[in-house]
Amino acid sequence: MKAKVLLSLVLLCGNLAAPLARAGDAASTAPAAPPACELPSYLLTTESQLPRVADAIKAGKPLEILVIGSRSTTIPASEDSSYPARMQAILKDRLLPSEAVHVSVEIQSKKTAEEAATTFVKLMEAKRPTLVIWQTGTVDAIRAIDPDDFRGAVTGGVSALQKAGADVVLMNLQYSPRTETMISVPPYLDNMRVVAQEHDIPLFDRFAIMRQWNDQGQFDLFSPSRGPELAKQVHDCLGRALAQFVIDAAHLGPAEQQN
Amino acid sequence: MTIADQVTGSTIAGTGKPAEARPAEAKPRSAAPAITLPAIGERELRLDLFRGLALWLIFVDHLPPSLLTWFTIRNYGFSDATEIFIFISGYTAAFVYGRAMLESGFVVATARILRRVWQIYVAHVFLFTIFLAEISYVATRFENPLYTEEMGIMDFLKQPDVTIVQALLLRFRPVNMDVLPLYIVLMLALPLILWLMKWRPDVTLGLSVVLYAVTWEYDLYLSAYPNGFWAFNPFAWQLLFVFGAWCALGGARRMSRILASRVTMWISIAYLVAAFYVTLTWYVPQLSHFMPKRLEQWMYPIDKADLDVLRFTHFLAFAALTVRFLPREWPGLKSPWLRPLILCGQHSLEIFCLGVFLAFAGHFILAEVSGGAAMHALISLSGILIMWGVAWVISWYKRVADKSGAKTKNAVGNADLAGGG
Fold it and tell me: Is residue A25 part of a domain?
């Protein structure tokens, strides 16, 4: 229950204070980013860094990224449009041709953070990624796992990933307005934020980002539509945002690379 | 409500002390074997006012965040409407059923309390039914591929036999349905609390503090279904409830000198300001640079489930200042502007349930009809108006019923004063 109120308040703040303060510098994501993906820059920047990613790029090594996720990592029957695939495309686009990027995905559906973390040692031995993007929390929130236990599991998982030699980015839950009355999300958001702070690793705030899109009307996340179009668009934007976030955290922007 | 009781500030004790022989505040606590009931010539409107306020705030907090959310007190300090609610519930429950216990004895009072518990339980089950209807509707209508994972929450519909039985056992509680089960457990403990209070109020309060400390030390909790624990731990939250009861049974009076002291006032103000500053650092992360790391480490997490000491003291400071600056005779309490709040506070169980229902309905409208800030504001405001309207109708009905009914009704029988969940 660490700082239960903390993140919900930070999020609220994000909606009110931050746009006021920084509405001017809406981040320009990838060159051809559709306007729907626009986000205030504070959602795409982090003070924590990704030193191993930066080193790998500097040393000209291929950048191996592993996304550990759950069912919301992908879109049923259109994996190519899911955010890991989109992120890979954007990263390839943004980085120099000589810099190889490869994104692999490990879906652990219906597993809590604790259950997922037990597989990390083997997974890391098999894949040896430079960067792990660990998306978690949804299953824990659905099953109402004790938030303290959840925090412990995320802490353990992050430590295991770091020990195996990877940079880690945490990604939190989706903003899902339909299920807001049924799933209590704030404790899990708070705890992920706390773990990210404690380990000084970047947190990709998927929840705040998607809420921003919904509130600004770019996407109607209440939509009951059964077609995959909305999901594809949202994942495209998430992929772009995530690529931008990684580039920012590892200081891989063209400006930084030149000097 | 008419109260045919000529005794004011009656003292009830095994020792049979007269009212005037009440021990002075300065005396040691153990020297006060008696419990005193406050005068009941007139309803304590401040309690109704703040309980009504708590009900409105709980309703607004249960809606998705909006501009109105910024008016709720949880954004300005550690404690929130739940503390106010539980404290006042303890106060009024002790006031009403304490009197019943002294006048009619333990057994009758317990029976009355159990009847009230039953009412709250039925209200809880009613709300659960509405929740089931809502979730089933969403489950059948909503198939956006973006949210296949979140739809996992519907899995419990696959085994309604287990889920519904667990809900009846108060172990399966959907989001926002945690307050009534807490209240049920606290009310179940009320006969014991009152019985102990009749013997030694201060010892009872002491025992409550001990239970609170033990809860923190040894991590006592009630488990929930399918896993996890109760969102409001009754072993911790009982402290507020018992403290409310203790205040109602003469504690507030004995504390009056402390409450009136300027030192208390300044400590309270300082604490509230400090808490406000800490809250501010949550919104304006830049400010957190001015927060000592050590203080942060000591302070966080501020645990709501176990009623963090910081939350409890924040409530105490808030209450101390309220008592000081809002006297019982404040004419504003009679003003028509505060009437809606007071009315809602007087029918708390009904209005609480209505608030939870309206929050469900509000979510539903936002999802099915349209979202947007204007719609949001409209829903919040109409929700509050509906709560007021229903409270008014209940009051009106009670007046009519009281007029035609027997004149024997007195404070003892008035369940509303005892507060709802």
Answer: no
Polymer length of chain A: 259
**Minimal C-alpha gap between B119 and chain A (Å):** 24
**Do B321 and B271 form a contact (C-beta atoms < 8 A)?**
no
Tens digit of pLDDT for each residue in B132-153?
Answer: 888 888 878 777 888 888 888 8
Q: Is residue A19 assigned to a domain?
A: no
Q: Check pLDDT > 70 for residue B29.
A: no
Burial profile A77-104: b = 16 or more Cβ within 10 angstroms, e = fewer? eeeebbbbbbbbbbbbebbeeebebebe
Domain coverage including residue A215: 2-12+36-254
Is A30 contained in some domain? Answer: no
Q: Identify the residue among A148, A178, A210, A218 best suited for mutation to test binding to B, counting B beta carbons within 10 A and taking the highest.
A: A178
Cβ–Cβ gap B144/A75 under 8 Å: no
Q: What is the pLDDT of residue B66?
A: 72
Which tokens sit at B84? 């106010």
Q: How many domains in chain A?
A: 1
Best CA proximity match to A151, nearest among A142, A161, A141: A141
The minimal CB distance from B75 to the residues A9, A70, A183 is found for A9
CB B86 within 8 A of CB B50: no
Q: Does B71 touch chain A (CB under 8 A)?
A: no
Instruction: Return the CATH number at A134.
Output: 3.40.50.1110
For residue A127, which phi and psi values (nearest 5 degrees)?
A: -105, -30
ipTM over 0.85: no
| Rounded Cα distance, A88 and A104, in Å | 9
Q: Is residue A22 part of a domain?
A: no
